[in-house]
Design brief:
It is elongated, with a radius of gyration of 22 Å. With 61 residues, it is mainly alpha-helical. The chain contains four helices and no strands.
Length: 61
């Protein structure tokens, strides 16, 4: 079955571009994620970290 898939994929024009595009999207996403993590305010991070433990939000009907 793998030979069938491999032969079919090799017959598609430009198929080699898809792995490069996927790698580029993956790389850009994680660069942006790291940038957001390092530039986010410490107050916001602390507020979001304490949110699950805050009784004011947990007791709403």
């Amino acid at each position: 079955m793998l030979k069938f898939v491999k032969n079919h994929m090799e017959s598609i024009e430009g198929i080699a571009n898809y792995p490069m595009v996927s790698l580029l999207i993956f790389f850009v996403f994680f660069v942006l994620l790291f940038w957001w993590v390092f530039t986010a305010s410490k107050e916001h991070i602390k507020e979001m970290g304490e949110l699950p433990l805050d009784n004011e939000y947990n007791n709403k009907p």
